[in-house]
């Protein structure tokens, strides 16, 4: 998910949902503590970051894939620490590599961390490996949970994009595009995760046993399920309240949110008034909407094109001028 | 291998830039972070058909790049590396809507502006100061500490990984990347080293009095200048959001040329 | 500066996999002394240091700092007295800037920021790297990293410095600088190393460990010139005490004058 594809409302809602899950996870990690986990989380985050750069060649396809890491973090650190670790990896990626972005940060942590750590891990991975670890069970559990975790994440991306309304893509098409792509990615992720977990299980079984013992996720699921539902409710509540708002485009609503008031309409009309004033003074331009917003698009585009292009050029020229002044000023200093 | 080198180079470069000393670098990290967030929210709040309204928002990154003396090419390069993903989704728009090209252009512009804003934030602030800002904004110490640790050990582990990849590649000259059947022991080895290192890091933290809590910076104070920075930019963003400046300028221009 | 003696009494330790790393070790280190602990790879040196600092706890026997036995309860107090410098500086430089890293210890003891800053500056001065204050650890050279790691320990004002292989991986110049720095400290020092020439220069006394036991304990002169003992323990006489391969002379005789 990227900043460019989301609306402030979707970004904000997902950020809130992520913050809730993160706050809960921090509390859990702190209670379990075991302050040993803190450096382990940090260094594991660095590991996932580094391991994403290993290209594994996939036999018979000529292509290569790498580890995503969500499931691996959940399996090795437990869901809470795993989620938090994923959150810091993604923050560094957003800041240093421009992957994702700060507004979409909540979406990304949720998509890659929540479904893996809080759904795929407890309900799939733990279920399959409940009767004790075997090489086969680890393989199956890693495969299935990785694939499903990623499918949920991908679907979440589709929903977020759709609700944001920043693209024209119809739901069906987008979903039909995303899900199969992520099926492929999920299989690779599952294979790599399974191989790594199996290796660890053979080399240092105590690591896996420790995590399993540390988080009694399987035994008292009710509280956890309730938490999950609560979080989902917050997230869905955010979406629904947005959806229920008068304008399904989401733009107005998001503006209300941004400005904290419902003054967008008012300000728009001020723009109109002002422009109308100018119009009446110049008495030249025909009567059409200058705000190239959602409204009657087709006509207004043709109409505004000339003044739009000129205005755009002027704006950029102005920007260039400001830049020039700054650099001259800087040089003099 | 190129990916490894690239990410190391990128982290080092941004870290170097963050240690410069310019007017922008000296601004308190909290207002700087907030300004960036306001900028992102405003840019992203434009609808999918908007292009001209986004143009004035070029001013923010441009002014910052100049004032903070950031090099343009590395930022553009990074931008080009991120864009393909966005292009992938954006390019489908024209297929579904005749005006999809406008949507596409709008998305591309937003992507350029938002990514640049993030890169500018980190290269004028540095992760240590951003962490300080997060602490000031009441983000729990545990999270901030493990964020810092992740960042710190990325370079250590990437160097370790680079050695492993080199050793593997030298003995497997016929293939690209690591074979899938080796991936368990390959990534697993790195992971085991990671665990051992985590243990040693933990020991060294314990020996210096770590008790599960992270005590960060004594807070440096936000000055009037910092507030003005935040306020002035926010005001500009909001004005540029509400009034379509290019349309206004275009109108003025036509008005003038016609009188 | 140092008023505590360190006593190690009948220490035993086995790792969970059953490997018996330390089998009955006893010695005493007096305030202000500088003691080298030497022995071949796997002889138990590093484990011994972990036991002294309370990272690991012995199966039998005890470690006494001053008059306090190292137990889980006394750890916080003991650790303020002991400063441990790790073999791999990267394990110890875990913060994102040198300043933050050196400040990590003092901040954990809740000193106010002014005092923290004063201590950091002092520690950086002591190891000669005040100019690296704002640098990120990953951009430092090996020698600079080692110096920063030592500063991170000095800022806690310990009575005793414990160092695991302080000269490993350093180039000759950095090594020389480190040796001079170490000589300048008045702390009680415990140094493990394979760099016997460094031990020769910096330590008054040497303890040789072999297979988890003390093989010898005596003055540096006594031990580092005892070829038979050293070779039996997988070591050799320091280069500077060996005969010159060209002229057959011993160039440097630190103990004769």
TrEMBL record, chain B:
GO (cellular component) term, any one: ATP-binding cassette (ABC) transporter complex
Matches recorded under Pfam families: CbiQ
PANTHER family to which the protein is assigned, alphabetical: SLL0384 PROTEIN (PTHR34857)
Membrane topology: Multi-pass membrane protein
A single BP term in Gene Ontology: cobalt ion transport
Protein name: Cobalt ECF transporter T component CbiQ
TM segment ranges: 29-47, 53-72, 102-127, 227-253
Cell compartment(s), UniProt: Cell membrane
Entry keywords, A to Z: Cell membrane, Membrane, Transmembrane, Transmembrane helix
InterPro entries: ABC/ECF_trnsptr_transmembrane (IPR003339), ECF_CbiQ (IPR012809), ECF_transporter_component (IPR051611)
Gene: cbiQ
Keyword Cell membrane applies: yes
Automatic annotation (TrEMBL), chain C:
Keyword check for Transmembrane: no
Topology versus the membrane: Peripheral membrane protein
Cross-referenced CDD domains: ABC_cobalt_CbiO_domain1
UniProt family annotation: Belongs to the ABC transporter superfamily.
Species of the source: Acetivibrio mesophilus
Subcellular location, record wording: Cell membrane
ABC transporter domain sequence ranges: 6-236
GO molecular function terms noted in the UniProt entry: ATP binding; ATP hydrolysis activity; ATPase-coupled transmembrane transporter activity
This protein's name: ABC transporter ATP-binding protein
Keywords for the protein's UniProt record, in alphabetical order: ATP-binding, Cell membrane, Membrane, Nucleotide-binding, Translocase, Transport
Entry GO terms, CC: ATP-binding cassette (ABC) transporter complex
Major localization class: membrane
Highest taxon listed in the record's lineage: Bacteria
UniProt keyword ATP-binding present: yes
InterPro entries: AAA+_ATPase (IPR003593), ABC_transporter-like_ATP-bd (IPR003439), ABC_transporter-like_CS (IPR017871), ABC_transpr_CbiO/EcfA_su (IPR015856), ECF_ABC_transporter_ATP-bd (IPR050095), P-loop_NTPase (IPR027417)
PROSITE patterns named in the record: ABC_TRANSPORTER_1, ABC_TRANSPORTER_2
One Pfam match: ABC_tran
């Amino acid at each position: 998910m990227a900043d460019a594809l989301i609306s402030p409302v979707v970004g904000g809602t997902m950020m809130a949902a992520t913050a809730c899950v993160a706050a809960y996870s921090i509390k859990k990690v702190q209670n379990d503590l075991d302050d040993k986990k803190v450096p382990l989380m940090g260094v594991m985050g660095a590991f996932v970051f580094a391991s994403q750069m290993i290209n594994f060649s996939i036999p018979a396809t000529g292509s290569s894939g790498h580890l995503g890491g969500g499931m691996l973090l959940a399996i090795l650190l437990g869901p809470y620490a795993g989620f938090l670790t994923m959150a810091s990896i993604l923050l560094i990626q957003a800041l240093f590599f421009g992957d994702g972005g700060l507004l979409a940060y909540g979406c990304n942590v949720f998509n890659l961390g929540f479904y893996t750590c809080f759904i795929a891990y407890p309900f799939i991975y733990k279920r399959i490996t409940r009767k004790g670890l075997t090489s086969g069970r680890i393989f199956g559990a890693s495969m299935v949970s990785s694939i499903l975790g990623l499918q949920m994440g991908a679907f979440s991306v589709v929903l977020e994009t759709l609700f944001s309304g920043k693209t024209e893509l119809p739901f069906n098409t987008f979903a039909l595009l995303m899900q199969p792509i992520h099926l492929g990615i999920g299989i690779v992720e599952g294979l790599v995760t399974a191989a790594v977990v199996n290796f660890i299980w053979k080399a240092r079984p105590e690591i896996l046993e420790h995590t399993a013992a540390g988080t009694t996720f399987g035994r008292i699921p009710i509280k956890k399920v309730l938490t999950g539902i609560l979080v989902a409710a917050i997230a869905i509540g955010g979406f629904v309240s947005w959806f229920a708002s008068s304008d399904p485009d989401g733009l107005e609503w998001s503006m209300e949110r941004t400005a904290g008031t419902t003054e967008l309409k008012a300000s728009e009309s001020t723009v109109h008034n002002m422009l109308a004033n100018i119009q009446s003074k110049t008495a030249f331009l025909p009567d059409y909407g200058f705000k190239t917003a959602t409204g009657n698009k087709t006509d207004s585009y043709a109409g505004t094109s000339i003044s739009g292009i000129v205005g755009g050029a002027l704006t950029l020229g102005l920007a260039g001028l400001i830049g020039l002044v700054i650099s001259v000023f800087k040089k003099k200093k | 291998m190129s990916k490894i080198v690239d990410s190391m180079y990128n982290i080092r470069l941004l870290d170097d830039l963050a240690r410069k000393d310019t007017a922008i670098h000296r601004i308190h990290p909290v207002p700087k972070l907030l300004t960036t967030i306001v900028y992102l929210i405003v840019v992203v709040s434009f609808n999918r058909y908007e292009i001209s309204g986004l143009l004035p928002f070029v001013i923010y990154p441009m002014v910052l790049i100049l004032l903070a003396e950031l090099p343009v090419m590395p930022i553009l390069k990074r931008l080009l590396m991120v864009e393909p993903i966005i292009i992938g989704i954006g390019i489908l728009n024209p297929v579904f809507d005749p005006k999809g090209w406008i949507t596409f252009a709008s998305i591309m512009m937003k992507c350029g502006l938002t990514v640049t804003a993030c890169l500018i934030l980190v290269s004028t602030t540095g992760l240590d100061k951003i962490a300080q800002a997060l602490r000031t904004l009441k983000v729990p110490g545990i999270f901030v500490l493990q964020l810092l640790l992740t960042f710190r050990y990325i370079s250590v582990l990437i160097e370790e990984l680079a050695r492993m990849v080199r050793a593997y590649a030298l003995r497997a000259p016929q293939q690209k990347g690591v074979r899938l059947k080796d991936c368990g022991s390959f990534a697993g080895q790195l992971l085991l080293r990671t665990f051992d290192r985590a243990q040693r890091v933990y020991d060294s933290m314990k020996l210096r009095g770590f008790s599960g809590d992270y005590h960060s910076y004594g807070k440096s104070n936000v000055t009037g200048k910092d507030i003005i920075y935040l306020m002035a930019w926010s005001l500009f963003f909001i004005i540029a959001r509400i009034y379509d400046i290019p349309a206004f300028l275009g109108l003025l221009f036509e008005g003038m040329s016609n009188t | 500066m140092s008023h505590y003696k360190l006593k190690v009494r009948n220490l035993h330790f086995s790792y969970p996999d059953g490997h018996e790393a330390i089998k009955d070790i006893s010695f005493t280190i007096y305030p202000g002394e500088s003691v080298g602990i030497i022995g071949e790879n796997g002889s138990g040196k590093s484990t011994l240091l972990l036991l002294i600092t309370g990272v690991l706890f012995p199966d039998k026997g005890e470690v006494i700092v001053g008059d306090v036995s190292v137990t889980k309860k006394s750890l916080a107090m003991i650790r303020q007295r002991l400063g441990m410098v790790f073999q791999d500086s990267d394990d110890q430089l875990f913060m994102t800037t040198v300043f933050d890293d050196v400040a990590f210890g003092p901040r954990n003891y809740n000193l106010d920021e002014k005092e923290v800053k004063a201590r950091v500056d002092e520690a950086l001065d002591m190891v000669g790297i005040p100019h690296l204050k704002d640098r990120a650890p990953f951009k430092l050279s090996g020698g600079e990293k080692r110096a920063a790691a030592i500063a991170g320990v000095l800022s806690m004002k310990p009575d005793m410095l414990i160092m695991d292989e302080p000269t490993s991986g350093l180039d000759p110049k950095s090594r020389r600088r480190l040796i001079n720095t170490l000589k300048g400290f008045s702390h009680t020092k415990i140094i493990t190393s394979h760099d016997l020439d460094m031990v020769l220069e910096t330590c008054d006394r040497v303890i040789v460990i072999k297979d988890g036991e003390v093989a010898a304990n005596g003055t540096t002169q006594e031990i580092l010139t005892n070829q038979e003992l050293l070779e039996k323990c997988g070591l050799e006489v320091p280069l500077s005490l060996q005969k010159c391969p060209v002229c057959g002379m011993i160039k440097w005789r630190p103990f004769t004058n």
